[in-house]
Amino acid sequence: MLEILQFEFMRNALFTGLLAGITCGVIGSLVIVNRIVFISGGIAHAAYGGIGIAVFFGLPYLLGVVGFSILCAIVMALVTLKEKHRADTIIGVIWALGMALGVILLDLTPGYNVDLMSYLFGSILTVPKSELWMISGVTVLTVAVVSVFYLDFQAMAYDEEFSRLKGVPVNFLYCLLLCLIALCVVTLIRIVGLILVIALLTIPPYIAEKYAGSLKTTMIWAAVLSTLFTWAGLWLSYTLNLTSGATIILVGGCCFFISLFTDKLLVRLRENAQKSDKAA
After folding, report:
1. CATH number of the domain that 210 lies in?
2. How many distinct structural domains can be found in the chain?
3. Whose C-alpha in 6, 13, 116, 123 is 20 to 30 A from the C-alpha of 239?
4. Quick one: three-class SS letters along the chain?
5. Is residue 273 in a domain?
6. Nearest CA to 215 among 18, 20, 34, 19?
7. Can you give the pLDDT at residue 28?
8. Smallest Cα–Cα separation from 234: which of 123, 139, 134?
9. In this structure, is residue 278 part of a structural domain?
């Protein structure tokens, strides 16, 4: 694997994978414990509208995607807080409209032939060094914000009503969390694409949560797993000449099912051991 380090684009990709792993570990753990995977998916796919806006109006790519993603995140947060019984329907509508808006604006852009595959399935190998600073900034900002509000995020995740009684600003934290998810999505679009972004946000934290004793430990292990999945996927895609984003998620998916099989095997062995003890 060391031979791939001779290429600058691979070094950039590996460093990007590390930064994305940290971001996914932190934000993904909050997504899992708050049970907002569907909302995260809505933000991820609505972000495609930001791509269309940026291209059509000639805006910087990041300005369009970040701005539109955060706007969608805030709308989804307000809807979820005020209309919980209809939240899934409204989020689904925003999800669909965001993607439709992006496709239409790209179609209307004169002389622009967009590579849909690069946005839908990612292209971590083409991340330029200039964007590494942006991704680094998102990672530092994410870790800093979660560190400052960690106890409040933890309280909100495990007992929202009790947190409100204790004076925790749940509504503010919820909106802040969805905005952080939007920033995380912007980072992951370049790596695994819109279609696969939720997998990288959820698979590592799901596996880590089962073996961690606290939210903080879950974040740490999720960051480690996410980074390992990304690096392993990069190596396989380089070796086998495969699409990097899809390969990264395939690695994560295989580990997901291995963890499920391991859990069932351990339960079966524990039950057999208990039966043997009773028989003795």
Report:
1. 1.10.3470.10
2. 1
3. 116
4. CHHHHHCHHHHHHHHHHHHHHHHHHHHHHHHHHHCCHHHHHHHHHHHHHHHHHHHHCCCCHHHHHHHHHHHHHHHHHHHHHHCHHHHHHHHHHHHHHHHHHHHHHHHHCCCCCCCHHHHHCCCHHHCCHHHHHHHHHHHHHHHHHHHHCHHHHHHHHHCHHHHHHCCCCHHHHHHHHHHHHHHHHHHHHCCCHHHHHHHHHHHHHHHHHHHCCCHHHHHHHHHHHHHHHHHHHHHHHHHHCCCHHHHHHHHHHHHHHHHHHHHHHHHHHHHHHHHHHHHC
5. no
6. 34
7. 92
8. 123
9. no
Q: Which domain holds residue 252?
A: 2-268
Q: What is the pLDDT of residues 259-275, one digit of tens each?
A: 989 888 888 888 777 77
Q: How many CB atoms lie within 10 A of CB 75?
A: 17
In a domain, 138, yes or no: yes
Calpha distance 31→19 (Å, rounded): 18
Give pLDDT tens digits for 8-32: 888 888 888 899 899 989 999 999 9
Tokens of 171: 């509504």
Rounded average pLDDT over 100-108: 87
Question: What predicted TM-score, i.e. pTM, was given to this entire model?
Answer: 0.86
Query: Hey, what are 50's tokens?
Result: 């930001």
Q: Is residue 95 part of a domain?
A: yes
Label residue 113 by pLDDT band (50, 70, 90): low
For residue range 159-183, what is the model confidence (pLDDT) as tens digits?
888 888 888 898 999 999 999 999 8
